[in-house]
Design goal:
By secondary structure, the chain is an alpha/beta fold. The chain has one domain: HUPs (Rossmann fold). The protein has 14 helices and four strands. Strands 3-2-1-4 form a four-stranded parallel beta sheet, sandwiched between helices. Helix 2 crosses helix 8, helix 3 crosses helix 8 and helix 5 packs across helix 6. The mean pLDDT is 92.
Length: 262
């Protein structure tokens, strides 16, 4: 049932996104892009769409890792896209992140995992935007609709970008698109993770899966189905999913400003 509700037409979706990307780059009079590649499905899908839009020599791929590099998962796919070697950047962010941890006197405890993870996410964006300035490029984001609605992002970190090709698609819809685009199976099937600490996974933090979250968010937000009714349809984590969203809504409302009346 959920797969039918969130089914897409991958080829039509691909064309719509590529048209959007082409129009945006043309309007901004910019021909280059910088994209962070984690080894996960979202950045891989965003890259696959970007390579349909720009010349290979105009795409800069940046793999930034704190714990361990997972670039080998995407390496062959990127090479097949004929991205020049000088446009592929491998950057360990461990040194600058650890320097910030020391500067702020942060103890590496479980209690501070999120704080340290936020530093890592923001450090990645410093690097991406600096490279974009250097190469006169746009930063291509990799956020999906599920993450956005759940508030599962770091403000001014992984949420920051100039252009977002897949933010309108739920995670399960991105899986459909990724298969159509011919992404490596290892990329499609690996557990989603921000790589913020050892063993960290998105769904492990949530306590529910993206598959369930997507259908609950869709029914609740787009079809106005009540939480009680959604639970009756077998989605027992509905309340937890919506509560997760609501506790993070503040991320969409900042910065708070004074609104003057005319």
């Amino acid at each position: 049932m959920s797969s039918q509700l969130l089914a897409i037409h991958p080829e039509e979706e691909k064309k719509a996104i590529v048209d959007f990307l082409k129009a945006t780059f043309k309007k901004q009079q910019i021909t280059k892009a910088v994209i962070g590649i984690s080894g996960g499905i979202d950045s891989a899908t965003s890259f696959a769409l970007l390579k349909e839009t720009l010349k290979p020599e105009d795409i800069h791929v940046v793999h930034m890792y704190y714990l361990e590099s997972k670039f080998e998962i995407m390496e062959q796919f990127i090479k097949n896209a004929t991205i020049p070697d000088e446009n592929i950047h491998h950057i360990s962010i461990k040194q600058p992140v650890d320097a910030m941890i020391e500067l702020q006197n942060i103890e590496p405890t479980d209690e501070n995992k999120i704080r340290i993870g936020n530093i890592a996410a923001r450090m990645r964006m410093i690097i991406l935007f600096d490279l974009a300035k250097k190469h006169k490029a746009l930063v291509c984001g990799t956020e999906n609709k599920s993450e956005n609605l759940l508030g599962y992002f770091t403000r001014f970190g992984d949420q920051a970008s100039d252009i977002e090709p897949i933010e309108h698609l739920y995670k399960t819809q991105i899986i459909q698109l990724a298969k159509h685009l011919g992404l490596p199976e290892d990329v499609i099937t690996q557990a989603p993770s921000a790589g913020l600490w050892k063993g960290q996974t998105d769904e492990g933090q949530f306590g529910f899966t993206y598959e369930e979250a997507d259908i609950v968010l869709y029914l609740f937000l787009e079809k106005n189905v009540s939480i009680g009714e959604i639970e009756k349809r077998g989605h027992l984590h509905a309340k937890k999913i919506i509560e997760w969203r609501e506790k993070n809504l503040f991320k969409h409302n900042t910065p708070y400003t004074i609104t003057k009346k005319n």
